[in-house]
């Protein structure tokens, strides 16, 4: 039995590694995961941020996020991988649970949940897949399938708090 992974599996592992590096606050791993090619400038859009261009700007943004977040965990859903040659796209929903600073020393602040849809572009470099671009957009309203009319239009904005199924 072969243990070689398909391109799609390798890309999905690289995508997971990106989120795990953020969860651990691992700036060294983050640097290894992003493309380092002057002919292919990287870019990143965090929810609510302007477009960041250039490897150093993107890595600095992640360092700032990781330094100012006491706790963050990503539960990825709706993960779809598409590979075309040496380029791949991953779309997914980031179900984020995060906690900020607490009032008391040594305590974790209140936990906050957030949904973000993300597109991550990867380029193959040798045998590895490197992040080329990340774009995250907040989910502001959900789609309630039960409110769909016969034409397929949706009549609701999701659950009570705007999150599908809530």
Describe the structure.
- The chain has 3 helices and 6 strands; from the N terminus they run ααββαββββ.
- The chain is of the alpha+beta class and 166 residues long.
- The chain has a single domain (7-101, 109-136), classed as Nuclear Transport Factor 2, Chain: A (Roll).
- A hairpin with a 2-residue loop joins strand 5 (108-125) and strand 6 (128-138).
- The model is unreliable at 145-166 (pLDDT under 50).
CATH level-3 fold name: Nuclear Transport Factor 2, Chain: A
Spatial shape: globular
Biggest β-sheet: strands ordered side by side in the sheet = 2-1-6-5-4-3
Summing up helix and strand content along with how strands pair, one would put the structural category as alpha+beta
Sheet having the most strands: 6 strands, mixed
Radius of gyration: 18 Å
Helix content: 10-25%
Total number of domains: 1
Instruction: State the end-to-end CA separation.
Output: 44 Å
Contiguous helical run count: 3
Order of helices and strands: HHEEHEEEE
Number of strands: 6
Q: Architecture, according to CATH?
A: Roll
Biased composition (Gly residues): 153-166
Protein name: DUF4440 domain-containing protein
Organism: Streptomyces klenkii
Pfam family, one: SnoaL_3
